[in-house]
């Protein structure tokens, strides 16, 4: 069976090249519905440190996220903006187990990408110790602006992700991602 992975964060701009046989941008349907991409995952080893954790994205079921935000949506409601655009990668069978092991902190969910392909997307677990939950956008922007880790500045991760989503899907409106990017860039100008 062909193994496809749906990347929604750093996998968009930094895929596991050694393991990827091909990629699929899915121009008209490169998204997963019913989930949201949020900077709600603590990073102590790439974009932050144990003393000053950065933030990276995770994908969370929209219904769960709405509860964390305090939205009172009827049970089962999926809002029009509850989708995540990304990139699908066909994984070389020799590296399938290694790729799966890399993503051990999240739970897998098999999703249809279109009529031909199925891929796995890793959905963040609310009980994951690295999950930080909902943070006000100004506090989150300040954290991302200030933090730095072995993989570089936290803001670089945000900027690369926003740039990649814009490049791959120029028709997409991702208010959360682009709003957070604007908030961090405003902090750069101010400081």
TrEMBL record:
GO terms for molecular function: glutathione specific gamma-glutamylcyclotransferase activity. The keyword Lyase applies. Gene3D superfamilies: Gamma-glutamyl cyclotransferase-like (3.10.490.10). The keyword NADP does not apply. Keywords: Lyase. One of its GO terms (cellular component) is cytoplasm. This is glutathione-specific gamma-glutamylcyclotransferase. It comes from Kwoniella mangroviensis CBS 10435.
